[in-house]
Specification:
Number of domains: 2
Structural class: mainly alpha
Order of helices and strands: HHHHHHHHHHH
Distance between the termini: 56 Å
Helix content: over 70%
Number of helices: 11
Largest sheet: none
Length: 253
């Protein structure tokens, strides 16, 4: 086994870190001791289960199986993103469609341009990163739109009273929501390598890959995360906007 990859003994030894976190939580009386233990146990069980499933997937299925796995991730991500913005009409459907569009556009381009390999060993982890970026873009956009509909309701209704269509009346608030959703992705792209080395780079470096090769892969990762967040955010905003007003252009959110 490569010294860069922890053995199961190393994994067991790392439980000491959980013990330190548990001790500090108890010492400071934060009331989170149970949550620390449950979260740690769930993480171990979930990751081992996923590892077993991926082992089967990589050995016995090809691209179709990998895409089916990515589809399942999209559906789960849509529920998570929609759950963060409860109160908007049809928010689960909107969030899922936004995440699916952002993922399909980004992952589809990477596969069509042969930027990544079509093997399941590549498509599944890369697809997971793309789905995460799309989920964050959609979730933050929808959350901010819900908040804007509440805090800016009087301004929107004033524009509606002047005869503006719902989409026009809410346009400034949509732009604010999209800006808020995309700024974290943009800022993360700006400082990558200067402040942090993301997981993809760290994993490749630990595996012994040439640093320049690892960085090249990380550039692709950062660009695809930015693209997925942008596509999903805009799609989420546009779809949500259609559900926030009725046929008479009244704000129903």
């Amino acid at each position: 086994m490569s010294p860069s990859v922890p053995s199961w003994y190393g994994v067991a030894a790392s439980v000491l870190l959980v013990g330190i976190a548990f001790f500090l939580v108890l010492r400071e009386r934060l009331g989170l001791g149970r949550e620390v233990l449950v979260a740690s146990a769930r993480a171990a069980v979930q990751l081992v289960a996923v590892g077993g499933l991926l082992l089967i997937l990589f050995r016995h299925t090809g691209l179709p199986g990998a895409l089916a796995w990515v589809t399942a991730m999209v559906l789960l991500a849509g529920r998570v993103a929609g759950g963060r913005a409860r109160g908007l009409p049809h928010v689960m459907r909107v969030a899922t469609l936004a995440v699916a569009t952002g993922t399909a556009a980004t992952l589809g381009l990477l596969l069509a341009a042969q930027v990544i390999d079509t093997s399941g060993r590549v498509v599944v982890p890369v697809g997971g990163m793309v789905v995460t970026g799309a989920m964050q873009g959609a979730s933050m956009t929808l959350q901010r739109m819900r908040d804007e509909a509440i805090t800016g309701r009087r301004a929107v209704e004033a524009r509606l009273a002047l005869g503006l269509a719902g989409s026009v009346a809410f346009a400034p608030h949509l732009r604010t929501s999209l800006r808020a959703a995309l700024i974290p992705a943009i800022d993360g792209t700006k400082v990558v390598g200067l402040i942090s080395l993301p997981g993809a780079t760290v994993g490749l470096l630990l595996a012994g890959v040439n640093p320049l090769t690892a960085i090249r892969y990380q550039v692709v990762v950062m660009y695809m995360l930015l693209g997925a967040a942008a596509v999903a955010g805009v799609v989420a905003g546009r779809l949500a906007l259609r559900t926030m007003f009725d046929d008479a252009h009244r704000l129903v959110a």
